[in-house]
Structures are given as structure tokens and as C-alpha cells.
Here is the input.
Amino acid sequence: MTRREHLYNSGEFDNSIYVIQCGYLKTSTFSRDGRQCLLAIHGPGEVLGEACLVPGVRNETATAMRSALVWRIRSADLLSAVTDDLMMERVVMCLAERMSEQQQAITNLVTMNSEQRLAATLLQLARKLGHRTEAGLRLDERITQDELSGLVGTTRSRIGHFLKKFHRLGYLESPRGAFILINERRLAAHAGV
Here is the structure.
């Protein structure tokens, strides 16, 4: 897939599940007034499109953030392959992890202010897509302020304000070659997580 190419679109019927081999994809939907709402960012090894196991059309659009290689598995093929207990356990764990992530995002929206949500979102992205170094959690994939505002549910200008504050307080750094380096302990304390 190339950058900005859609893997699937909201409102379309698609009976496949996808596994990201390399690259990053984002999933989004639209509000009733036409605003795009970013739901999640997915990276290598992650599964997306699992909602096809429930009959109906897609309620989200998956878009490549940069070039990506994605494996397609028809849901019928997956279900017929789930014949042993180990495979069933892995599928159930994958679905449970996704459900837990979504419930946490909903909880954050209703219990945190936008500054805390940004801190929690940065931690979640870095833990999922980044890697640990001696200096902190390093996230190399660039995520725009527009994308962060979509994930957090606030304006781009508020995201910029909070990022500057986090840098000033020493929660974040912008080292050469990385998007951000996070002081995990301090940012988690600020988010209250």
C-alpha cells in the first residue's frame, strides 16, 4: 500500500481481517456533521478489521500513514483455521486486547481533561509503536498534531500548546531521528495513569 491509500472504507462490505507486516495505518470515522474522527493508529504485527466477524458494513476507514505491507485473511478462512485450542486462544486474546484498548479510550474521553488525554495517548502510542531506550520511551513514527488532535478529541492548537508545555516540563524531548522521547514515569504521573 502507498501513503494515504485506503485499505477499506466506512460503509463498504468487506469480509477480511488484516495483519500489518510493516508500516502504519490509521482508522477513522466521520461524525454526523462530517468531521473526521481518528480512532486508532496501528503498527507492525497488529490486526485490524476484526469487526468483519460481525455481519454488516465497515464503520471505519483504514488508511496507510506511509507505505505499508498488509496481509489479507478472509474471515471465513480464519474461522475455518481456528480448529485447535492454541489458535482459538490467540484469536480470542487479540480480540480482547482490542476491546480493552477501545474501552480505555472511551474511559479517557469521559474521565480526563484534554491535557491528560494527550499524555495518556502519547504513552499508549509509545508503548505500542515505540521502543524502550535507556533515555526513555522512543517513538520514531511521526504523528502529526492533526492526528493527535483527532485521537485526543481537542483542537490542533491545544495539542501544540500541551506539547510545548510537556517539553518545557521535561516530559518529552525531540531527539535527532525520533519523533519524541518520553520520560515515561513523569508523563504517566501527569496523566494520572
About this structure: Helices lie at 75-81, 85-111, 114-129, 145-152, 156-168, 184-191.
